[in-house]
Design brief:
4 helices; 134 residues; globular
């Protein structure tokens, strides 16, 4: 069974596009298959852990969201946390509560995510702990 997380950027309770150039900059060193133009990127971290990222680019308007599946624990969680932070995105696991990196981001979340959002550092350990707490 696959577990998914979503990288979504919220402004005034709505989803806004992610910066495609920032996405490329952070993911490029880890891409082993696909790429931003293909709508799919398979990443591999320095410890060999991998993740599949699905992302549709809409040209100048950016990437609406990123869906992450089949991701390994370990260094890949650090890559994903750094990617979300660089994009100004919340990490939203498929089963619920948003993970954000700054308290001021809470006000931009939709009402149903706002109250239970968890503020965390953009690190491997923090993302691991937040996912384990589910």
């Amino acid at each position: 069974m696959s577990y998914s997380i979503f990288l979504l950027r919220f402004v005034d309770s709505g989803v806004v596009a992610l910066d495609a150039e920032r996405f490329r900059h952070v993911t490029e060193p880890y891409v082993v298959a696909g790429g931003p133009e293909e709508g799919f990127s398979q990443l591999r971290a320095e410890d060999g852990g991998e993740a599949d990222l699905y992302h549709e680019s809409h040209g100048e308007s950016g990437i609406p969201s990123v869906t992450v599946t089949h991701f390994a624990r370990g260094a890949m969680l650090g890559v994903l946390a750094r990617l979300a932070a660089a994009l100004g995105a919340a990490v939203v696991p498929q089963d619920g509560e948003a993970l954000i990196f700054h308290e001021q981001e809470r006000r931009h979340l939709p009402a149903e995510l706002r109250a239970n959002a968890v503020v965390m550092a953009p690190t491997e350990d923090a993302l691991q702990a937040a996912l384990d707490a589910r």
